Amino acid sequence: MTSAFENAMKQLDQVVPFLGKKYARGLKLLKIPQRILKKKISIKLDNGKTKFFQAYRIQFNDARGPFKGGIRYHPNVTEDEIKALSFWMTVKCAVVGIPYGGSKGGISVDPQTLSQNELKKLTYSYAEFVAPYIGPWKDVPAPDVNTDGQTMAWLLEAYEKKVGYQAPATFTGKPIELGGSQGRTEATGVGGVTVLKEYLKKKRIDIKKATLAVQGIGNVGYWFAHFAQKEGFKVIAVANSKGGIYNPKGLDINKLTDSFRPNITNEDLLALDIDVLVPAALENAITKENADKVRARVVFEMANGPTTPEADEILAKRKIDVIPDVLANAGGVTVSYFEWAQNLNGYYWEKEEVLNKERKIMIEAFNDIYREVLEKKVTYRKAAFILAIKRIIDAMILRGRV
Q: Which helix (H) or strand (E) is 54 found in, with range?
């Protein structure tokens, strides 16, 4: 399988020719995470046996602010993947201009094999492991694949017991009752649809006639499809890990259940003749093996790292735009930033205020990138990276790190 971190570094290398000499030393430093934490953590299972799990927290760069990044529970979690995701988070926060660096965490575990009690124990054990390295002004974790508000609530409780005081701003994506923000659940989907609308406006494509297919119908994919449908898009296919459902007349997202009967494969979905293809599952969905089968007018990345650099080149040659993950799905971290700001101030905003602030940031970020696309005649990913890398290294230079 392609190394996620190698892919991330290829993306970085591709924008080097567009950066001046002043950024050369910073680019070398930007290829190395500031801190790699890894440990085998253990819990006593319900049957009395002790089991060990590999856990990670990688803090990539904090030149622009505290580290920020999710925690995922997945059997395929590796150091390489977490390193790549922490780099992409650093870039993503810079793309939307919020004052964070980037980090990521994870545990190599299939959460479906554990009881609720065992998951709680595992989460407490992880909190013990990372507690010295996180905090409101150090590193602010959030939910990711297979983690949610309940996970954040357990982490918060374990962390606060360890440090001896209330510290809600240490975690985002929390339940509302524990200082979570209104609008956080749907934030990534709202941000994605906001960016897609701006893109289609520039391309003069009628939203009401645009067709979409969404690969991956978890929290991100569901809310993206929900808001896309609300805006007038026709969602004609969605898929989960077992396969997809396709209806050329359109699907009603709000009536779909997890138990839908697949009538297409994931590979079929990627090859549909549509306007917008939305990979919203895991990394490496579009590769050099299947990129030539993509028939969409635009690939809109709601997952992290779903398109490999080789696939990017194939799609660019075929004049298929790719709106990159570091912009498309940045609505989640944007509202995480709002949650953090609300926690630090002890003052909370209504949902519409949160979502309107988010839309404003996402529109500004898209327009910044669009200007780079036109000026430098580059892809949207290269434009996003050029902007972000300059912002990160400028901060490193100002701090005297370079």
A: strand 50-61
Which residues are designated catalytic?
104
Would you call 62 helix, strand, or coil by DSSP?
A: coil
- Give the span between the Cα atoms of 396 and 23, in whole angstroms: 10
Q: What is the DSSP letter of 181?
A: P
Question: What is the rounded distance in angstroms from the CA atom of residue 378 to the CA atom of residue 397?
Answer: 26
**Domains along the sequence of the chain with CATH:** 34-167 (3.40.50.10860), 187-328 (3.40.50.720)
Q: State both tokens at 380.
A: 């949207």
Q: Return the beta strands (E) in 174-257 as ranges.
A: 211-215, 234-240, 243-246
Q: Which residues contact 28 (CB under 8 A, 6 or more apart)?
A: none
For residues 281 and 305, what is the distance between their CA atoms, to the nearest angstrom?
A: 10
What are the Cα distances from residue 94, in Å, to 13, 14, 167, 302, 364?
17, 18, 25, 17, 13
What residues of the chain score a pLDDT lower than 50? none
* CA 129/CA 155 separation, integer angstroms: 11
Report the greatest alpha carbon distance in the chain: 63
According to the model, what pLDDT value does residue 1 have? 62
CA distance 250 to 210: 11
The DSSP bridge pattern shows strands 67-74 and 139-143 to be parallel
Integer Cα distance of 233 and 207 in angstroms: 6
List the Cα angle 364/31/101 in 5-degree steps: 40
Give phi and psi for 264, each to the nearest 5.
Answer: -140, 160
- For residue 263, give the nearest of 241, 246, 238 by alpha carbon: 246
Backbone phi and psi for residue 60, each to the nearest 5 degrees, phi listed first: -85, -55
Quote the CA–CA distance of 358 and 346 in Å, as a whole number.
Answer: 20
- Burial zone of 316 (CB within 10 Å; 0-12 exposed, 13-18 middle, 19+ buried): middle
Q: How far is CA 13 from the centre of its chain?
A: 21
* Predicted local distance difference test score (pLDDT) of residue 283: 78
- Is-contact 387 373, C-beta < 8 A? no
Task: Please name the residue that has the structure tokens 């259940």.
Answer: 257
